[in-house]
Amino acid sequence: MSTHPIQLEVNNLTTCFRTSTGNVTAVDDISFSLKKGETLCIVGESGCGKSVSALSIMGLLPPSGYVKSGSANFHNDNLLSMSSSQLERLRGNRISMIFQDPGSSLNPVMRIGDQVSEIFKIHLHMSKKESERKTLEMLRQVEIPDPESRMLAYPHELSGGMAQRVMIAMALVCSPDILIADEPTTALDVTIQSQILNLMIQMQSKTETAILLITHDLGVVAEMANNVLVMYCGQIVEYGDVKTVFNSPVHPYTKALMQSIPIIGEKTKRLDAIPGRVPSLNLLPPGCRFEKRCSEKNTNITSDCQEKIPPIFNLNDNHGSRCWLEKED
Amino acid sequence: MSKLGRVSKTLSDNFDEDLLLQEPMSVWKRTFKRLWSRRSGKIGLLLIGFIFLIAFTAPIIAPYDPQEVLIGKEIVKLKKREGPCIHMLGCDSAKPQHLMGIDGNYRDQYSRIIYGSRISLSIGFSTVAFAVTGGVLLGALAAFFGGWIDNIIMRLMDVILGFPSLLLAIAIVAVLGPGIRNALLAIAIVTLPAYARLTRASVLTVKELDFVKASITLGASPTRLLLFRILPNSLTPVVVLATLGIATAILDAAGLSFLGLGAQPPMPEWGTMLGSERNQVFSAPHLVFFPGIAIMITVLSFNLFGDGLRDALDPRLND
Amino acid sequence: MVLANIGISMPVFWLGLMLAYLFGLLLKDTIFWLPPSGRLTAGLSSIPFFEVWGWDVVSGTAKSRVLEFFANHYIFNALITGNWEIFKDAIRHMILPVIALSTIPMAIIARMTRSSLLEVLGRDYIRTARAKGIKNTNVVTKHALRNAMLPVVTILGLQMGGLLSGAVLTETVFGLAGVGRMLVEAIYARDYPIIQTFTVMVAVAYMLINLIVDISYGFLDPRVRLE
Q: Where are the domains of chain A?
């Protein structure tokens, strides 16, 4: 395990996809850092680029995707400029990733035990007997009942929650420095969700792993995050620690998000939704991408909002917002 | 796309201008565009066009009549099964030009191959037309009515599929007697079950969709429903299979003719030409080589086109 | 894949004839020469193994027929009797028909494998395997290939049908006295009983092979197994 306080530093990451209608920018100039033991949540709507950011860092983009610019430094080594064999040594070992749909993320023709013990063999160079023993231990740690017989099971024989536990087990075999979790609970029942999240918190406290958690569920953010990144249309629009962002959001989009959360106990006639729709990545406006749906525009700055993309204004040490309203004149 | 255009008019114009900016394209145009952009579809279509051209202009481009026996008609005495004489490549210009040589009956092979394209294309299309019509009909009936009708039809299809296709075709032709018409019938029967199965699967899927149930409750007639709503949605895989089926039909027909069971001499069908000359392959290889190449290029073109069509129609490859 | 596309467009009898011409005539005086027809060179004959070993077999009995059946497989026979000359000769006679007959199914399987593998490589669990840090070659061979083989196995059974049909044509080309050629000759001679028998036999064989394929599918794909 490393003693560096900052595990991952992403600077100006831009990722594009090649499509038949031209190149589309899915992630536009994002920067953040992830510290040891910290949980950073990236939150945003479907299609805002949060998953693509994680895949870019891991080097797991589909063939039509490529990183246009930026760096992702893991302990001072840029992940984006590493060779594939260097990346292969880090993946599953120092940086792990778990995905959204555990049912389809496990190899259907391999037994669960084999899929977990594989990691022991590859990264920790253990013998077959040794890795099987360790696999059993790992499955117990993630609270899978009756691990001896579960080891021999195939993925289609497991429930969603069980499968996700297996994924977590696989990810934490080598006690990685960073765990990237891409919507780990989205495909699960609500009751199972909280079990999985608690499991992740537990495992994190044992190993001091930094977690990069990607989700669109604000409830998950509230429960898990130390810090939050709000993304919209490929850009970071607000960042900060979770209490600040939730209680005193600054960016109009974040404010609208917080407002749209229904409060249990309060009666309303309609749910507060944000009017309009996310602009298509093919037809992005020249200025602020949230401008058309923003309810805080004022006539002073409207032309700026429409013509120029606002930079991220740092409000204080750990809070920033990408909005012209924050510009101090 | 056009549906979205209509819906967006009910929302405020501010938000949806960008949707209206994208022009809707009809399904055919988009399919053709995607087909053209892939190499296999493009080459396949071009080759098919080329072969059709040859077939149509056969009387014009063939230097001799395909059935014309040339013995005694030429100035210079011809040898039986003489090799190609191409003036451009150095053959003595006193000898008459025969681009692909002369066959065992003193006929010009080049002309026969050109006319053979007509036969092969008509074999391909007529076989598939028959098989598709029959297969789609049977499959749709089986799926729509279910129950014992479904059972009988599908068991019949299974019986046919229980035999390797060429062997069954051989058996059918053996019973009916050799000849090109019987060969066509045999090949059509043998390839029919594939279309029946495919149509049945498609219709079963579409039948269970909610819009069908809704239409029936609203009083729509089942036959109209079948013809105008269900079938068109199920036909895409059939079209792809039919294109590839033309390729298989041409190959099977050539195989039958090779064995003497399909087109009979003196018809200039490529398989027949190959079959009658096969024992002379060592002394007159050109009589085996050229018909075979002709078959290969024709079948290849339909295979490539079918592949390209399948990729172009694949709904998963959305842009 | 261009080769595969060409491969499935060739008529098998043409391929056989062209191979026979190439290896039987053009390469006649080279070491690449292969005999274009028959099973053994004229003058050589294969001695059944039971004669070589001096077994006492009364011809015409059921037992003798079974033994003859095995002895007729010249390659197998030569192997167990240690007759290397016949062994090599028989194999050399088999090379061309085997290549001619197998090329087309090979091309079909190649295409199927390629498209199946491409599809599997886009699946989520392959992404997981990569995220675990498995080397790319191992991702393909250990994780992707097994899944990709499932549809290929399905068409293997169907290919047997193609092999049986193709055998008819290949035997005609190479002058091998097999079931296929007997069927064709029976057709010319309008020998209906033989046509019926052979057709049914072939159909039964085809069915059995497909049954075996279906059952083996359960061994490969755990999702399909009956509990």
A: 105-173, 254-326
**What residues contact residue A265 under an 8 Å CB cut-off, 6+ apart?**
none
Q: Which of C3, C8, C9 is most worth mutating to test chain B (most B CB atoms within 10 A of its CB)?
A: C9
Residues of C within 8 A of B167 (CB-CB) are 164-165, 168, 183, 199, 202-203
Condensed to tens digits (0 to 9), the pLDDT of residues A50-88 reads 899 999 999 898 888 999 999 999 988 888 888 888 888
pLDDT in tens, A181-207: 999 888 888 888 888 888 888 888 888
What is the ipTM for the molecules in this complex? 0.82
The answer to whether B271 touches B260, Cβ cutoff 8 Å, is no
Range of the domain at B258: 33-313
Would the CB atoms of B18 and A276 count as touching at under 8 Å? Answer: no
Q: What is the pLDDT of residues A87-114, one digit of tens each?
A: 888 898 889 999 988 888 999 888 999 9
State residue B30's pLDDT score.
62
With 0-12 / 13-18 / 19 or more C-beta atoms within 10 angstroms meaning exposed / middle / buried, residue A212 is buried
User: How many structural domains is chain B composed of?
Assistant: 1
Strands A227-232, A39-43: pairing kind:
parallel
The C-alpha atoms of residue B288 and residue B160 are separated, in whole angstroms, by 32
Do B18 and A275 make contact, defined as CB atoms within 8 angstroms?
no
Report d(CA B217, CA C216) in Å as an integer: 45
The DSSP annotation for A1-58 comes to ----SEEEEEEEEEEEEEETTEEEEEEEEEEEEEETT-EEEEE--TTSSHHHHHHHHH
H or E segment at A69?
strand A65-74
pLDDT-derived band at B34 (thresholds 50, 70, 90) equals: low
> Is C187 part of the contact surface with chain B (CB cutoff 8 Å)?
yes
CATH number at residue B202: 1.10.3720.10
Whether residues C184 and B295 touch (CB distance < 8 A) is answered with no
